[in-house]
Design a protein that fits this description.
Elements (H helix, E strand, L loop, with lengths): L1 H27 L3 H6 L5 H7 L7 H10 L6 H4 L12 H4 L28 E2 L5 E7 L23 H12 L6 E6 L7 H12 L6 E6 L1 H4 L6 H9 L3 E7 L8 H12 L2 E8 L8 H13 L3 E6 L14 H11 L10 E4 L8 E2 L1
The protein binds iron/sulfur cluster.
Protein name: EF-P beta-lysylation protein EpmB
Organism: Vreelandella aquamarina
């Protein structure tokens, strides 16, 4: 009896101790805002941290002049040292190739300028609109189709948000608001909680969708402040993460996904098919498996949007179709992402 009681006490003391250790490590980690503001912004520093020799520096400077470097520590820690082909590094390292301008590669490949009826709002598809909730990102992805987006013209103040909100109120056919950016989760929780509160008062809105890379590149972004407003809204919540390679999903990302699911967020993922990052069957199959282990369903596999500066990532459509056909031999149907292209003017994404 005494032995059993002692074992019980010891077990509980260990649980309390491990809880305290966990809390202590959370407390000792810098806040997500600190991590965001201390992201690497200098190509030389990025090359040095990752042990790349100087042959990479000139190209990195050229690309940086076109679209600046931004890589938070929590993300570059997942990269291999002295490995220029690392699939995470390839997504963020500027290259001299970005200066090439092949025919068809343009600043606004999706012609979003034609679909901005009011400041900070893009309305391309029936039933849903996209709100530019933040002009910045936690990481600057070299293939981003919005790398030339005029954020300065589309960053409404709170007063200017009223115009976008009025647009939503006036159209009962809109059921979904999509927070985008930049990365919408780069905005403060105070701002996002206010916006979510305004949106949920619009009776015909059913869903709040958030497209973000922040829970992946800085998992600490999924903190109690975010979970509080997200968990409280009456709107159905969908978060579309943006993960291109299984190496991006470490334990911190898995834990962040679990916290989001605990407050009722449906988690989906979209990837971009990128030359040198994920353009082979095994890589894509492992990504789908790893996503599902983290509680995230693969949703879209986009072919590259032809944005100026990103042509070196392109995988031709025929090769993309072959890859996806072969991928079907490795995965159950529910882990197969849909291969799509966004064509300006079309009423939805176009399956390939
Ligand atoms: S909008 Fe998304 S893809 Fe583009 S740079 Fe930001 S995080 Fe990367």
């Amino acid at each position: 009896m005494i032995t059993r009681r002692r074992a019980f006490l010891q077990e509980n003391i260990m649980i309390v101790a491990s809880d305290r250790l966990e809390q202590a490590s959370e407390v000792s980690r810098p806040s997500w805002q600190h991590q965001l503001s201390h992201a690497i912004r200098d190509p030389r520093v990025l090359c040095q941290y990752l042990g790349l020799d100087d042959t990479w520096l000139e190209g990195a400077r050229t690309g940086h002049a076109l679209f600046e470097v931004r890589v938070p520590e929590a993300y570059f820690k997942r990269m291999a040292h002295n490995a220029p082909d690392d699939p995470l590094l390839r997504q963020v390292l500027p290259l001299g190739d970005e200066i090439l301008a092949p025919a068809g590669y343009v600043a606004d490949p999706l012609e979003e300028a034609d679909h901005r009826p009011v400041r900070g709002l893009i309305h391309k598809y029936a039933g849903r609109v996209l709100l530019i909730a933040s002009p910045t990102c936690a990481v600057n992805c070299r293939y981003c189709f919005r790398r030339h987006f005029p954020y300065s013209e589309n960053s409404p103040s709170r007063a200017q948000w009223q115009e976008a909100l009025d647009y939503l109120r006036d159209d009962p056919g809109i059921h979904e608001a999509i927070l985008s950016g930049g990365d919408p989760l780069a905005a403060s929780d105070r701002q996002l909680a206010w916006l979510a509160g305004e949106l949920e008062r619009i009776p015909h809105l059913k869903r709040l969708r958030i497209h973000t890379r922040l829970p992946v590149v800085i998992p600490d972004r999924v903190d109690s402040d975010l979970l509080a407003w997200l968990g409280n809204t009456r709107l159905q919540k969908v978060m579309v993460l943006h993960i291109n390679h299984a190496n991006e999903i470490d334990q911190a990302v898995v834990d962040a996904c679990a916290r989001l699911k605990a407050v009722g967020v449906t988690l989906l993922n979209q990837s971009v098919l990128l030359r040198g990052v994920n353009d082979d069957v095994t890589t894509l199959a492992v990504l789908s498996e790893r996503l599902f282990e983290a509680g995230v369903l693969p949703y879209y596999l986009h072919v590259l949007d032809p944005v100026q500066g990103a042509a070196h990532f392109d995988v031709p459509d025929e090769e993309a179709r072959t890859l996806v056909t072969r991928l079907r031999d490795h995965l159950p149907g529910f882990l197969m992402p849909r291969l799509v292209r966004e064509i300006p003017g079309e009423a939805s994404k176009t399956p390939l």
